[in-house]
Amino acid sequence: RIVRSMSLLQRVTSNETLSPERGRSPTSSHSPRDRKLSFSPIPGSWVAPAVEENVQAIGAFEVPKSKRILQVFTAVIYCLFAAGIVFGYAALKPVLIREHVYRNLCTKEELEEGVRTCYDQEIHLNLMFTVAAVGTNVAALPIGAILDTLGPRVCGIIGSFLLAIGAVLFAFASEAKFDAYIPGYLFLALGGPFVFISSFQLSNTFPKHSGLILALLTGAFDSSSAVFLVYRMIYQWSNGSFWPKKFFLAYLVVPLLILIVQIFLMPKASYKTVGELVKQVEDADTNYDDQVDEQTALLQDERRQGRQSVVSEITDLLGSKSGGKQIQQEERKNAISGVWGAMHGKTVTQQILSPWFLLITLFTMIQMTRINFFVATIRPQYEYLLSSYEKAVEINTFFDVALPLGGILSIPFIGLVLDNTSTFFVLSALVTIATAIGVLGCLPYTWAAYANISLFVLYRPFYYTAVSDYSAKVFGFRTFGTVYGLIICLAGLFNFSQSGLDALLHKVFNGDPLPVNLILLGGALVVGIALCVFVGVKAYRFERLRLEHEAETASEVIMPGAESPERL
């Protein structure tokens, strides 16, 4: 998911590069764009024309505290109901099957056999999710450009309209003369990232608590997959009377409320980042009037008092005028990474053609496909492995509950791991856990199924966050929108191979998930090992170069008493 995908974005979304790049002075950047992370796929050297004036960033101190609190609270609520609902597909799928969605595609022989789902029905249902997953990831590219040029309010409004279109299409899909399920689900998928990503900038409403705000937004994204779980429970409780049309028409309340709060509550422009606030303080400290005659003395004094008031308010937000604490924290994390700055300062083309990009992209493509394939086929997989439909339903229900909970529970641990361990360690952990999940997914035991799901729901947010963290540390923030967006976009497009995997599962292997799982496991293991070896070797070389540089630049220190050896 993104996007959690999104979630992309999950740790670096509101922070800016406070630490200088290798060989670059920390004071050399004077552009606001250099000081903050852009979601746009457009290279950082590009500066938007006059339209950028219309969405000039605002300082949090300019907005009442109560309003900022309300903005954050509201964003968390609507992200909870809209950000990533399509990833609750595993909970919605049984409802669609019971409503005979795509049942008309079954052959006469399959209907006579009384199969729960026929081949074409299964393929089309999973294709609906595949298209939505691809759309979610590909959408990261245009969303970044829209957010950077038109601002978060426009992004949120677009998202509300997309959600509304998706809900209407899905509500009337059973009556439509065309297949409205796939485009309906796609629009729901596209609307989520628009409202979610545009909310990231709200972490700058309270810079000292930006981590907590991001955690709340991320948790809301993870929990949003439970929307369809709640609906399925209501559907079963009502014995099918609360059918999809009623639910999706009722769901229109969500995009309507998002539209209202975007117009009347949410900011038109993004809040200023820490770097921009620090620069504003610096500008205020150095600003002075050339004329100090009697006629301008009063005006100058008023301006000075105004600047001091602004500096005081910014200091209250940051905790200091220079943001020194944040800078020290970033420098410490960069040093721990071992590969921070590896491709900083390189052109986008150089970065994309490097092994740093190619290996992480291949790994992401395979892992994202594995994740989405498992989400789409969890019930038929365990129905075959456990030889029991009832046990498969139990496993599916456990997964539906564990998926949002796993995302929430993993948030604090993900931050601790990424901030306090090297990138090589993080990648090694990703490969190791992915291998364990792959092995557990091949075992025909109930305990293995529960262990597999427990690991999976914790691994999924860790994986997505680690990829975005890797991209920020290796490639830098100035090209983050382009490079990370391309990684997710390519991985999303590769998800179309899921239809081929479905065909292999049902046609070639007669429902046996073992061969497909082994293929995905083997591919991820080979690419993962190659990635870890490459990063490990590079980190070792960087450390040696650092030590050699320190030795060469170290000043000569005379030992006590060395100047007068006769005293020894």
UniProtKB/TrEMBL annotation:
Coiled coil: none annotated. The chain crosses the membrane at residues 72-92, 127-147, 154-174, 180-200, 212-235, 247-265, 356-378, 398-417, 475-496, 516-537. Residues 13-36 are annotated as: Disordered. InterPro entries: MFS (IPR011701), MFS_trans_sf (IPR036259), SLC43A_AATransporter (IPR052599). It comes from the Eukaryota. Belongs to the SLC43A transporter (TC 2.A.1.44) family. This is Protein FMP42. The gene is FMP42.
